[in-house]
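Is this the right way to post structure tokens for a design question? Let me know if I should format differently. Anyway, here goes:
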């Protein structure tokens, strides 16, 4: 299921739109984030932070909450922004997954913690991935490519310069966690290919500009 652009300049997922108590959006260069979201000092780790533990400057790459009115946000420009919603337990999460976070299985850590602390079942979790650098543009050398061998066992080209599909890698991690394929949306546009919509770290590395993606329980 593809994302669509809303009038406020956010890409939205029809999958998450189905949840009536939820508001979400993946930022573009046009979108300005309303309110004051909770955001982490992102460090490409596997550290998951519950909103009750959050402090300004807190380091980590995934935020979880079940409190209404608490907006969770991640900043990206090529890394994959991932938004989760557990439709049974009413728990949400916002995740920042670049290639290092993907390999650190930040997404699996988040789902594990949602299960341990909130009773989330993977079958009840909806997952939407936002715009990120696509397999068309994400070229890596062998030292990075080889790290992805376990996620892409069918590939035999990872020992030289190659391209990696980070969204697909995260989709596979979700499937390994037990999230059904029909609960996953990972067909977002490539940030590097579309300068009219997105900042891209690889394309405009001097600017350092990031986009915000956010999710919130509205009631
Ligand atoms: Zn591209």
């Amino acid at each position: 299921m593809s994302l669509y652009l809303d009038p406020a300049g956010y890409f939205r997922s029809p999958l998450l739109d189905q949840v009536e108590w939820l508001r979400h959006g993946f930022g573009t260069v046009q979108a300005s984030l309303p309110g004051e979201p909770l955001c982490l000092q992102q460090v490409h780790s596997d550290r998951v932070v519950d909103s009750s533990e959050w402090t300004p400057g807190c380091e980590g790459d995934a935020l979880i909450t079940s409190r209404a009115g608490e907006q969770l946000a991640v900043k990206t420009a090529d890394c994959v922004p991932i938004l989760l919603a557990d439709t049974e337990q009413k728990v949400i999460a916002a995740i920042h997954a670049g290639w290092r976070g993907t390999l650190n299985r930040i997404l699996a850590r988040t789902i594990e913690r949602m299960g341990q602390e909130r009773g989330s079942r993977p079958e009840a979790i909806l997952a939407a991935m936002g715009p990120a650098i696509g397999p068309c543009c994400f070229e890596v050398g062998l030292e990075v490519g080889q790290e992805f061998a376990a996620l892409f066992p069918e590939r035999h080209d990872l020992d030289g310069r190659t391209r990696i599909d980070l969204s697909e890698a995260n989709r596979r991690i979700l499937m390994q966690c037990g999230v059904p394929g029909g609960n996953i949306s990972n067909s977002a546009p490539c940030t590097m290919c579309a300068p009219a919509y997105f900042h891209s770290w690889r394309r405009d590395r001097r600017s350092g500009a990031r986009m915000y993606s956010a999710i919130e329980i509205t009631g």
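Format looks fine. Someone answered above. Worth noting: The mean pLDDT is 95. The two ends are 26 Å apart (CA to CA).
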